[in-house]
Amino acid sequence: MIAAVADVLPPRDSSPTVVLLTTGGTIATEVDSDGIARHSSSGGDLLAASGSDDVVVDDLMAVDSAEMTPQRWQQIAAAVRGHVARGATGIVIAHGTDTLEETALWLALTCSLPVPVVLTGAQRSGDHPESDGPGNLRDAFTVAATGAVLGVVVCFAGQVYPATGIRKVDLAAPAGFAGVAPIGQVRDGMFLRHADTPPVFLGTVTRAALPRVDVVSLYPGADAVALDAYVRAGAQGLVLEALGAGNANDVVIEAVSRHIANGIPVLVTTRVPGGTLAPGYAPGQKLVDAGAVTVSRLRSGQARVLCMAALATGSDLVSVVERLG
Length: 325
Known about the structure:
By secondary structure, the protein is α/β, with parallel strands linked by helices. Strand 15 (237-242), helix 7 (250-261) and strand 16 form a beta-alpha-beta unit. The two termini are 29 Å apart. Helix content is 31%, strand content 21%. It contains ten helices and 17 strands. The strands form four sheets. A nine-stranded mixed β-sheet has the order 1-13-12-9-8-7-6-2-5, with helices on both faces.
């Protein structure tokens, strides 16, 4: 039983300064008469719906997470660092679920913080009769109020996950995230922690312009057109969403080999949702022989973030992938 081995972390005795940083997403939407969910709620509205208080609200942006960009990651990172510098003891980030996993990993890789940073969101709009946003926010506030040194985590449907490996696995179910084992859970208003978050920080990145890394998804008959086009467009790294256990055809393998020879790193992940990637067939081994780096656990979205952060911090990409990928 988790509770038997968990550290039960209550809120701090002193008054914590928890900040709610809003960025948009389903959690802040209502469904219009045309059936489309659109942003309508401020951070104050979200706070009121959650029934929480003693939280500082920072309405940073209000965008669908499909509109999230690396530059906006940097805005969020700067805001988080600023609030911590001014005394915040915990940060909750309300975020759209479509790209929450990328933002969470970028923050984990580039922000070294002594307070919990908790990302959450919702699968159902704020005006849904069974909206999950208020409950997710309450749970996230519970985790943030402990002041525990957790790094960046994701709190969803009562589970608390490390940023590395998390991914959206369902479009509608409240428990929409998986991919990695939770480090704890929120139960009866208490955070029950039963594992530590592994250290993932690579280095602080303050510049707005980040290395371009593109993802190419393979399919039967794929050629080198997309790979070549991304490199011409300025890609400094590529992620190959390969077939099965990391396989590709000879045309793609030739292009990968060519780009690696020209100094463009290539990471290999898989389009298969589950399992650990380990090349076990001749095509996959050819990619490795060409110099491609296999990312065992992460899928393409987070593999791209990992590559970007390694390039931006000057970290050794192979070592980073071996440790975190």
